[in-house]
Design a protein that fits this description.
By secondary structure, the chain is α/β, with parallel strands linked by helices. The protein is built from eleven helices and 13 strands. Helix 2 (81-93) crosses helix 3 and helix 6 (191-203) runs parallel beside helix 7. Flavin mononucleotide (FMN) is lined by residues 22-25, 58-59, 101, 163, 165-166, 213, 247, 285-289, 308-311.
Length: 340
């Protein structure tokens, strides 16, 4: 029987427990140069000290106009590598593993003068209308993802997550609501995402896992559901995705009838369905910050890994407190034992 504190191994990624810190934008790059700073260093390293098995660095963008805001991290330049490499080294020294989420915001790039997207359809009435990428530019975008992944590997990350969720560029390509192209990238909605995965894998050591984050359902009227997401995930699995990170939504303003749940474990059924249909490892996320519940998700084999986002913003020592509550020993660092 597995539990939250069982070890986990996929390819070369060996984790001491099943607790993951999901990517969470900090919007803290004050210099707007995409380079991680002291805030990012402390933010990630403190969660490693806090016992988290696997940390995923926030959405890190492949070009300046791929950022949600100018305060986001980037990996479009070699100058952005050293600060991330330092975070990786420090996180490793505290016994955790660390991945990074590589992304492009597409039409949701708020500070871009002219955001780009598969088609010229704005996110909502308050958003800029994006410019549709030419076919050549789409191919160029795949190369930008490739170079960002190359730099992430240079920085020493243990895994790469590709952001295919929350209405950002890859999601915009595989959603029929936002991709109205008539070229090869519109006739085949997963072509762009597949090419990004293939380019990433070509840059990664063969035994390094690639995680694909998807929105397993949309909430806007006429959006895709779990059946469609099972189908496009199969294409992504074939292209090389080793693990799926199951989120939902983010594609548009939420229709009243389709609001995502805010109750505990609201996305776990989606994770379980992808796991069963594809026979792949999955990571669950969304209001799983009760340790007993998180432990049950693992024990019931609904997901292989559990992510705690906002719970870890409140408490960097979430994992240590969960260990105490679940009566797991040898988790708390000796310097902190007196507190537990
Ligand atoms: C402040 C904040 C920033 C976030 N940034 C990202 C991000 O960069 N990439 C991403 O895929 N999800 C992002 N998310 C979503 C989280 O990864 C997670 O899926 C969500 O918070 C639900 O999990 P929770 O209930 O444990 O917080 C963000 C969430 C928060 C609260």
């Amino acid at each position: 029987m597995q539990n939250l504190f069982s070890t986990y191994k996929i390819k070369s990624l060996e984790l001491k427990n099943r607790v993951v810190m999901p990517p969470m934008c900090q919007y803290s790059v004050e210099k707007k140069d995409g380079i991680a700073n002291d805030w990012h260093h402390l933010h990630y390293v403190s969660r490693a000290v806090g016992g988290t098995g696997f940390i995923i660095v926030e959405m890190t963008d492949v070009e300046p106009d791929g950022r949600i805001t100018d305060y986001d991290l980037g990996l479009w330049s070699d100058e952005q590598v050293p600060a991330l490499a330092k975070i990786v080294e420090a996180v490793h020294s505290h016994g955790a593993k660390i991945g990074i989420q590589i992304a492009h915001a597409g039409r949701k790039a708020e500070d871009a003068a002219e955001p780009v997207a598969p088609s010229a359809i704005p996110f909502d009435e308050n958003s800029k209308t994006p410019r549709a990428l030419t076919t050549e530019e789409v191919k160029g975008m795949v190369e930008k993802f490739r170079l960002a992944v190359r730099r992430a590997v240079q920085a020493g990350f243990d895994a790469i997550e590709i952001h295919g969720a929350h209405g950002y560029l890859i999601h915009q390509f595989h959603s029929p609501l936002t991709n109205k192209r008539d070229d090869e990238y519109g006739q085949d909605l997963t072509k762009f995402g597949r090419e990004v995965i293939e380019a990433a894998k070509a840059e990664m050591p063969a035994d390094m896992p690639l995680i694909m984050r998807i929105s397993a359902r949309e909430y806007v009227e006429g959006g895709y559901g779990i059946e469609e997401s099972i189908e496009f995930s199969k294409a992504y699995k074939e292209a090389g995705a080793d693990v799926f990170d199951i989120s939902s939504g983010g594609e548009g303003q939420i229709a009243a009838w389709g609001r995502p749940g805010t109750h505990a474990a609201y996305q776990v059924p989606l994770a379980r369905q992808i796991k069963e249909a594809l026979q792949v490892p999955v990571m669950a996320v969304g209001r799983l910050d009760d340790p007993i519940l998180a432990n049950a998700v693992i024990g019931n084999e609904e997901a292989d890994l559990v992510q705690v986002g906002r719970g870890m913003l409140r408490n960097p020592y979430w994992t240590l407190e969960a260990a105490k509550q679940l009566r797991k020993e040898n988790v708390v660092p000796k310097q902190y034992e007196a507190g537990f």
